[in-house]
Fold this protein.
Amino acid sequence: ILNVEQSPQSLHVQEGDSTNFTCSFPSSNFYALHWYRWETAKSPEALFVMTLNGDEKKKGRISATLNTKEGYSYLYIKGSQPEDSATYLCAFRRLGGATNKLIFGTGTLLAVQP
Amino acid sequence: NAGVTQTPKFQVLKTGQSMTLQCAQDMNHEYMSWYRQDPGMGLRLIHYSVGAGITDQGEVPNGYNVSRSTTEDFPLRLLSAAPSQTSVYFCASSYSGYQTAEKLFFGSGTQLSVL
């Protein structure tokens, strides 16, 4: 059984704070790491798909880094805004699997207070 | 562009009833999948398909059937509903399932309660 762990489970910050959370995954047989943003009452939406050790991706105020050798990825949000409030999911895909099967973590719930 | 469309949004069943959750996508995606979301757990894969006529089991397939007769549609059938199947169900698709790092596109979810 592959474990994907996310920390912290939840986070409450003030508007303007910068924040980051962690996704840990098996360091062997790595293929890809996904980040999704999931707002309440909506569907998860993809933020990033990362495949190479050392990858850094950026989308506006949100960025992510990847370390496949040690099995972790960080998601950073700079200057959090209330509209950033959501659950952030990461998902791991193993090398050798024939299909796009993803193992999801339980997510980090971010609440940004104005 | 509709994307991934799931119906119904809500459903209440009695134990032992059967039903089909519908999923359709209009993006010509080869890969389609069904996940369930339960409190305190990550999204768990039920079944998936890499193309018309090809389906396979995910992590938690028991009690569910799928078929893929067309590229667009991937229905999920509950054969005899049980309270343990109370969950939120998501359909998700990607362009290709094979050896690519494609992001998933999710439907809006179906909240199912089995009494």
The first strand of chain B starts at residue 4 and ends at 7. The two ends of chain B are 36 Å apart (CA to CA). The mean pLDDT of chain B is 93.
